[in-house]
Specification:
The chain starts with a helix and ends in a 9-residue tail after the last strand. It has helices at about 5-20, 115-120, 175-190, 210-215, 215-225, 240-245, 265-285, 305-315, 340-355, and strands at about 35-40, 40-50, 55-60, 65-70, 75-80, 85-95, 100-115, 140-145, 160-165, 190-200, 255-260, 290-295, 325, 370-375, 380-385, 390-395, 400-405, 410-415, 415-420, 420-425, 435-440, 450, 460. Strands 1, 3, 4, 6, 7, 8, 9, 10, 11, 12 and 13 form an eleven-stranded mixed β-sheet that branches. The chain has a four-stranded antiparallel β-sheet with strand order 14-15-20-19, with no helix packed on it. A four-stranded antiparallel β-sheet has the order 18-17-21-23. The chain has about 475 residues and is α/β, with parallel strands linked by helices. The chain has two domains: about 105-355, SGNH hydrolase (Rossmann fold, 3-Layer(aba) Sandwich), CATH 3.40.50; about 370-465, Immunoglobulin-like, CATH 2.60.40. Keywords: Hydrolase, Signal. GO terms for molecular function: sialate O-acetylesterase activity. It comes from Adhaeribacter pallidiroseus.
């Protein structure tokens, strides 16, 4: 056989091989075995393939094949309609190759994010956590943990995998996330998927699309003042690009947020930043999902009142539609920035979601929240939301942590008493009161509660709360 003939055969085989499409269809890691898809929704499934490659996605829950073609950028996406909660199901993605995903559940999917108090795991030593580990056998609860990563631009994938909740996997997942998810699962009797994307010590700036900060002069100026730290990023978008963007638009029921310790030095800025983050996430997901946050616990921060002012900034975020907040002033630890009672934090978030997202009207989910005030002579009457059953003084006869100010905006300690579902506040030296503030101290553990046993939030009735004495 001549060398020319061998060369011709070899060349022909190479040409034939070159026109056989490569097995290019693939999925981001957020899609995998054991995943949970949001129920009763139109969920987006996306991935990559050869340009022009036909891709068919089929869910076993309805066997409806949805077809598309990969774009010239080798990208594709389809939308699948999901049924009510159930499973396990399977999902098949077919192009020139096939991907089969098994043990897929349909249920409620929640994103958990923030800094170390969200990241904190059960095996890190939470209160009463050890007895919960062997009981964490919930096959219908699934976890996905996003590892710490940062990036200068939006990434298309994350490392990680969905795992089933067992006594082996639960200790390594967000404790707040787990106890939230367990309560949702047990109350609704539906599968729950939890995605934890959090990083200890990070300011909120790193969790927002950097374009959203760049377009806001005030936020951009504040972000430019952040100084680098050894434990994580501080520049706008660094965590968002690597730990949030690759998850979008994976359909979620809502987001849980436990963050703020890294922003206490500029609470006035945080009052703008957190609503901007919420709006940005909703825009990026194209979904106005609920956003529920944890107010910071009492702690000995460095400068007077900065913790209180950050808590007030968080409370004022509640004017953003579709938000909610749990107060934990009674279950914190003023000597530890990481309060170890994560179980009650998770349960309070779950009650918030059960009431506001899932319509469980019998669930009480909030302590008293400042609503309005009226000046009555030398007194100010404070009105609250979430006091349907009334107000109480816990562990004492006198209300604590109230202050009142006159026109000079100088606050002095005040006496306060419950009057029906309101509180009357006064001080002998203030004849013409104009403002009241409550729990205005970094380590304040006030004793005003509603009769459901939940504490009142820090509040300040003035517009410029970050400038008061």
């Amino acid at each position: 056989m001549s060398r020319f003939f061998l060369f011709t055969i070899t060349l022909s085989l190479a040409l034939i091989h070159s026109i056989v499409p490569a097995k290019a269809v693939s999925l981001p890691k957020i899609f995998g075995n054991h995943m949970v898809l949001q129920q009763n929704a139109e969920v987006t499934i996306w991935g990559w393939g050869n340009p022009g490659e036909e891709v068919t996605v089929t869910g076993s829950w309805n066997q409806e094949a949805v077809k598309t073609k990969a774009s010239n950028l080798a990208q594709w996406q389809v939308k699948l309609k999901t049924p009510a909660a159930g499973g396990p199901f399977s999902m098949t993605v077919k192009g020139h190759n096939a991907i089969n995903l098994e043990d897929v559940l349909i249920g409620e999917v929640w994103l958990c994010s923030g800094q170390s108090n969200m990241e904190w795991t059960t095996n890190a030593g939470i209160d009463n956590g050890a007895p919960e580990i062997p009981k964490a056998n919930f096959p219908s609860i699934r976890f996905f943990t996003v590892p710490h990563r940062s990036a200068d631009g939006a990434q298309i994938d994350v490392a990680g995998e969905w795992v089933v909740c067992t006594p082996q996997t639960m200790p390594h997942f967000s404790a707040v996330g787990y106890f939230f998810g367990r309560q949702i699962h047990q109350t609704l009797n539906q599968p729950v998927g939890l995605i934890n994307s959090s990083w200890g010590g990070t300011p909120a700036e790193v969790w927002i699309n950097p374009e959203a900060i760049a377009q806001n002069q005030s936020l951009a100026q504040a972000a430019a003042k952040l100084e680098e730290v050894p434990w994580g990023p501080v520049k706008p978008g660094k965590a968002y690009n690597a730990m949030i963007a690759p998850l979008i638009p994976y359909r979620v029921a809502g987001a849980l947020w436990y963050q703020g310790e890294a922003n206490v030095s500029d609470p006035g800025n945080y009052a703008q930043l957190l609503p901007a983050l919420i709006q940005n996430w909703r825009q990026q997901w194209q979904q106005d999902f609920p956003f529920y946050l944890v107010q910071l616990a009492p702690y000995k921060y460095g400068r007077p009142h900065e913790g209180a002012m950050l808590r007030e900034a968080q409370r004022r975020t509640l004017t953003t539609p579709g938000t909610g907040m749990v107060v934990i002033s009674d279950i914190g630890n003023k000597d530890d920035i990481h309060p170890r009672n994560k179980i009650d934090v998770g349960l309070r978030l779950a009650n918030l979601a059960l009431a506001k997202t899932y319509g469980k009207k019998e669930v009480t989910y909030s302590g008293p929240l400042y609503k309005s005030m009226q000046v009555e002579g030398n007194k100010i009457r404070i009105n609250f939301d979430h006091v349907e059953t009334g107000l109480v003084v816990k562990n004492g006869k006198e209300l604590t942590h109230f202050e009142i100010a006159g026109p000079d905006n100088r606050f002095v300690p005040a006496s306060a008493k419950i009057s029906g579902k309101t509180v009357l506040v006064q001080a002998p030296e203030i004849k013409n009161p104009v403002a009241v503030r409550f729990a205005w101290d970094n380590i304040a553990e006030p004793n005003l509660y509603n009769k459901a046993g939940l504490p009142a939030s820090t509040f300040h009735t003035g517009a410029n709360f970050a400038e008061s004495n």
